[in-house]
Design brief:
Elements: E1 5-9, E2 12-15, H1 16-38, H2 42-66, H3 75-78, H4 80-100, H5 106-128, H6 137-164, H7 176-196, H8 205-223, H9 231-253, H10 256-279, H11 284-289, H12 311-319, E3 323-328, H13 330-335, H14 338-350, E4 354-359, H15 369-376, E5 384-386, H16 387-390, E6 399-403, H17 412-415, E7 434-439, E8 459-463, H18 466-479
Parallel strand pairs: 3-4, 3-6, 4-5, 6-7, 7-8
Antiparallel strand pairs: 1-2
Helix pairs in contact: 1-2, 1-10, 5-6, 5-9, 6-7, 6-8, 6-9, 7-8, 9-10, 12-18, 14-18
Length: 480
Amino acid sequence: MMDTILGTINGVDFTIGETILELSYLLSAIFFVVGLKLLSHPESARKGNFYAAGGMLLAMITTILLHKNESGQAIGLANIGIITATIAAGGLVGSVIARKVKMTAMPQLVSFFNATGGAASALVALLEYPNADPSNTGSMLVTILGLIIGSIAFSGSMIAYGKLDGKVGDLTAGYMKYINLLFLILVTVTGTWLVVSNTPVEEMQWAIYSLFALTLVYGILFVMPIGGADMPVVISLLNSFTGIAAAMAGFIYNNQAMILGGILVGAAGSILTILMVRAMNRSLVNVLVGAFGGGGASADQVQGIIKEISVSDASILLSYSQSVVIVPGYGLAVAQAQHVCHELDNLLEGKGVQVRYAIHPVAGRMPGHMNVLLAEADVPYDKLVEMEDINPDMPNTDVVIVIGANDVVNPAADDDPSSPIYGMPIIRTHEAKNIIVMKRGMGKGYAGIENFLFFNDKTRMLFGNAKDSIQKLVTEIKTL
């Protein structure tokens, strides 16, 4: 029934099945766009995920049932057992990982999943290369680009995963930029040659595998020198690479759903990357070539002394304030203190204190990390205030509580031209009337530099695990 010819356009017959397939791709694309729009707000993000997943599920089902090759064979139905088993295995593994992962490891999970997307696109290009037509420049171009971009996204994301998880260190030697440039030239020259040589693919098998190896190595070397403070930018960039690689795979298979989905992911990742580098007052080239980390003031260069505050004094200061701003950072995520932190802000608001959260664009280990963390604790979205909106209010803020944030509140970005983060916009906590910093110890931030804020005359340190410290504050405030 599905083979009935529905009509003819430019001499090509279209069946009912093909028409339904194309319409399902259009509907999937609409689901993707709506899902992406809903993801822009924490309150609707969960619904956005369902819309996007529903669009992908629709595209998968209709492709399996209705897609046919040039000979008219329904490949999906012919291999339904293998496809179903693969989807089930992948779904099971993904579900287990997603349920078990801690919020602190969410950036690592994002990098790992991003790596799998890049690997899938690269393997599609590698496996389909023998079927490419050397005389068709367009076909060769999308195949080679899919291989290059997908491979870089895979190996680069795996290195990013290792860095975020503390298993891989930075390689900041000056010669790395020249090695990276050499590999980039080799990848570009080899890829261009494969596209324009017009040599039979059978004779170029060694070249395609050589390109595959080169791009994998380049992806590793490309991320290795990048410092920790730049990782949110790198994650966004690699995410856009995966989307672009998926679009290339869509062109290889002439699959509109893959093309549209890949373009949306690639565009969203690119826009986010641009927003990240602007938030850090840097250029993308500067991020990729000159990483944050090292340098800056050493402990003996910092003028001032560390002053501590007791839980009792901190609770009194907070209870009798009019305006309190909480600056969350990665330490909040490590301590899993988001829920008790929300309990603290509810308690203070019950006493008539205005409480807001100051969100830096690159706080945490990935874009939006703090937003996701606080949304998990049901913190109202209107309490989350972006850096540029909260900074003008800092001089009128009675108390700022810095929980685990470091580089994003470091006044060295304003005061120390020798600092690696000089010129980076920060949350101007040093302008508040009182500053409470919660930390386990005097460790440095991800950029590896000393924080001038700790030595400010208005700063008091509350050492200890953030969750325990906040819980003690909550208990003490309740007794006042």
